[in-house]
Design brief:
Layout lengths: L1 E7 L4 H13 L4 E6 L9 E9 L14 E4 L18 E5 L8 H4 L3 E5 L1 H7 L11 H11 L4 H10 L5 H12 L1 E4 L38 E5 L5 H5 L6 H9 L3 H9 L5 H7 L3 H5 L11 H11 L14 E4 L3 H12 L4 E5 L7 H4 L8 H12 L4 E4 L5 H7 L5 E4 L5 E2 L12 E3 H9 L9 E5 L3 H12 L4 E5 L11 H9 L3 E3 L2 E8 L4 E13 L5 E5 L6 E5 L2 E4 L3 E2 L25 E3 L2 H4 L4 H20 L31 E2 L2 H4 L7 E3 L8 H6 L13 H5 L5 E4 L2 E4 L9 H5 L5 E5 L1
């Protein structure tokens, strides 16, 4: 009787051959046990052989036509494994499967299966990664070959395998499953004659070897696409990585088209977005994050706008509010074919984009041009009339759906005493008056209370309309201010003063004129927002006066829901209940209060898709995203260090009194395109860009080009993982077989 054992280095395959031989030796047989050496490393495939005979064994060759085969690792089952086995023999496999599940491999043969790995690991024999299954498998083989369990245990004891080894063998003996599989056994094929030895001049030199070595592998490479962190961090839902790559390839029209798939306001976002994509950028772990905001602006300024899409559906939709959420919803609804009518209470479209963002940050021609392109999609507008609850209910009977995005209308106030009459101004109203040319503060001392974007915009605008000195008062620290970091830095460069950990108490006359009494603060435990709670100091000089002529409140705003039916509850993405007419949706800051242009754009687009799904049943929402490409997925050391390129800016002293745009963006020079160079700093996290590193570094040559991608020749892949290590972007990863 001849037995072939197929195992991996570290599992004890050669020892198993000796255990089987010893069991029969104690029964009075002649035995032989040996392995094929030179491939003994852990995990490498190996073979061992056992011969048992009534007469002395004189054959010392490897077993070619075994009576039985033992397979210690399920991944070693390959095509033709049992083709040389004698027809009445057994194949004993270490696997969690039952014999019937192996019919495709061993049709017509006797098959036995046992989960030797689980038994061995449960008894402390090796680990799940490298289980030592020899003593477990000898129990299963003994049962298959009709050996009494006492004989099997005697063989173990003779070789000093006791305790857990005996226990494992006995459990395998009891739990092995055996079956004769239906079908016809595949007989051995005749070996082809050897060909001539190739010389160095033959064409096939350098090709794949004749012997497949894929059975060495315990794992294999796979490909995937991860979600770039910039994409995940964009509230507008932009494919950030794709448009950055397009700019890097000088494909400006394509970059703009990619942006316009999700956002109709790329020129605006390229100027005023707080850029959470840049905060998420993995490149920041290497040197500096990619300057995505400036690249978006460049794409908007240099790309050609696609031809607008005209309405082709019958169901009309009304959009109330022309801020970023309303403009986004109208744009995407129009692109889906709906005739859209937009209602705006002010005389001009744009909402907070027009009334709340100063021109030095957002020039009016940029705003007007992007609104004009949106309207070219067949959108009708009505301006100069604020709608009431009655008007809204009427619209629900005139349109197939209504989207309300009226923003934040109610400004939060602060009780500073009677002295504040005529002196205190709300920040959002102040910015609108400045825009209209109705405000001058020549020679005045101004205090701005707040730490958000409105506070910074109001302070910088106050300086531009003549204020002699501007103080910003904030009850927390600069690091905790919600305003865009760059805006804070630019304000300080222009000469504004920031008073941290200071809270206003009251306005009054201190004998030298109007003064704001303030309280020094310290930071305590985190509050509901997760930030440390400001707590008043108790020292003698904890309160002090700041002389002023004007106070601007920028404490945030809240939603005015008086337009909605009484008792309405807003849930973004769901139609409001209690309406008798068409479904009514709410979005933007009106529903989310997130307070950024990009979040409002994303909310408007989502509303358009919700409305489309409600009216047609068609779901156009993107499927769940793949896992995010974390910094650990990126092989950063293969990338050179290059500092981030910044757009040009006007000198602080030259800009502090004018409303000229502060940021001039990337400026092309002969032979130097900074936007392209900056875009090329992108890692392309989680996305293959066919860099060929996997192909170049594969020691076996099994990574092959396949159209625009790659494939792996599993017949020769040994699972070394060099391709995964060489992949800079986390696209290739290894899985266990």
């Amino acid at each position: 009787m001849e037995i072939t054992i197929c195992g991996r280095g570290g599992q004890g395959g050669v020892t198993l051959a000796k255990l089987i031989a010893t069991t029969y030796f104690l029964r009075g047989k002649y035995v032989q046990a040996f392995g094929v050496y030179a491939a003994e490393r852990s995990g490498a495939p190996l073979q061992a052989f056992t011969r048992i005979d009534d007469d002395e064994i004189t054959n010392h060759n490897q077993v070619r036509h075994p009576d039985h085969i033992a397979v210690l690792d399920r991944t070693l089952i390959v095509e033709g494994l049992a083709s040389l086995m004698k027809p009445d023999g057994w194949v004993v496999v270490n696997t969690t499967e039952n014999p019937e599940s192996l019919r495709d491999h061993f049709a017509g043969l006797h098959v036995a299966t046992v989960d030797a790995t689980a038994i061995a690991v449960a008894n402390g024999l090796g680990t799940r990664a490298v289980p030592i299954v020899n003593t477990t498998m000898v129990g299963a083989i003994g049962r298959v070959l009709d050996l009494p369990i006492d004989d099997v245990l005697a063989g173990l004891q003779h070789l000093n395998f006791g305790g857990a080894n005996e226990k494992s063998a006995q459990q395998a003996y009891e739990h092995v499953q055996m079956a004769k599989l239906p079908g016809e056994a595949v007989s051995a094929e005749t070996c082809a004659a050897s060909g001539p030895v190739a010389s160095i001049f033959d064409r096939d030199v350098g090709g794949m070897p004749k012997i497949k070595t894929g059975s060495w592998a315990t794992r294999k490479p796979e490909r995937r696409q991860l979600t770039p962190p910039c994409n995940h961090g964009c509230p507008a839902g932009n494919d950030v990585r794709a448009f950055v790559e397009a700019v890097g390839n000088k494909e400006y029209d394509n970059a703009l088209s990619i942006l316009l798939e999700t956002s109709p306001l790329p020129g605006i976002c390229g100027r005023v977005c707080p850029a959470p994509c840049m905060e998420a950028c993995n490149r920041g772990e290497h040197d500096d994050s990619v300057n995505i905001r400036e690249i978006e602006r460049y794409a908007a300024d240099h790309g050609k706008l696609p031809t607008p899409i005209k309405p082709n559906r019958e169901e009309p939709v009304a959009v109330i509010g022309s801020g970023p959420a309303g403009l986004s919803a109208a744009y995407h609804l129009a692109r889906l074919g709906y005739p859209v009518t937009m209602y705006e209470g002010e005389q001009e479209l744009g909402g907070v984009l027009r009334t709340g963002i100063p021109e030095y940050r957002l020039p009016r021609d940029v705003l007007d041009n992007e609104i004009a392109y949106i309207l070219q999609h067949g959108i009708t507008t009505h301006t100069g009339q604020f709608l009431s609850r009655k008007d809204l209910l009427k619209l629900t009977h005139e349109y197939a759906a209504v989207f309300a995005a009226t923003g934040l209308q109610d400004s939060r106030t602060l009780e500073l005493g009677s002295a504040g009459s005529g002196v205190v101004e709300q920040g959002i109203h102040f910015l609108d008056r400045v825009r209209k040319g109705e405000m001058r503060l020549d020679g005045q001392r101004v205090i701005v209370i707040g730490g958000g974007n409105t506070a910074i915009d109001a302070a910088r605008s106050a300086l531009r309309v003549g204020a002699k000195h501007v103080n910003i008062v904030y009850r927390r620290t600069r690091e905790q201010m919600p305003a865009i970091r760059e805006e804070i830095e630019e304000a300080l460069e222009e000469g504004l003063e920031l008073n941290e950990l200071v809270a206003p108490l009251r306005l009054g006359d201190n004998g030298q004129g109007l003064a704001l009494t303030c309280q020094r603060m310290t930071l305590g435990e985190p509050d509901a927002s997760g930030r440390p709670r400001p707590i008043p100091e108790t020292s003698e000089d904890a309160q002090f006066d700041m002389v002023c002529d004007c106070v601007i409140l920028a404490l945030g705003q809240s939603t005015d829901i008086s337009i909605l039916p009484e008792g309405s509850e807003i849930h973004e993405g769901k139609a409001l209940l209690g309406m008798s007419g068409a479904p009514l949706f709410a979005g933007g800051d009106f529903a989310t209060n997130e307070g950024t242009v990009t979040a409002a754009i994303g909310s408007g687009r989502a509303a358009a898709l919700h409305i489309h799904r409600t009216l047609t049943g068609e779901d156009l929402f993107a499927p769940p995203t793949e896992p995010i490409a974390s910094p650990e997925e990126i092989t950063m050391h293969v990338f050179d260090h290059h500092p981030r390129k910044e757009g040009e800016m006007i000198d602080p002293m030259a800009r502090r009194r004018v409303f000229t745009e502060v940021r001039a963006g990337f400026s092309d020079q002969p032979g130097h395109l900074p936007a392209v160079a900056e875009a090329q700093r992108c890692f392309n996290c989680g996305v293959c860009n066919t860099c060929d590193r996997c192909l170049d570094y594969c020691p076996e040559g099994i990574v092959l080009r396949d159209g625009d991608g790659y494939r792996f020749d599993a017949g020769y892949c040994k699972g070394c993982g060099v391709c995964a290590t060489a992949c800079p972007r986390g696209v290739i990863y290894m899985t266990q077989l």
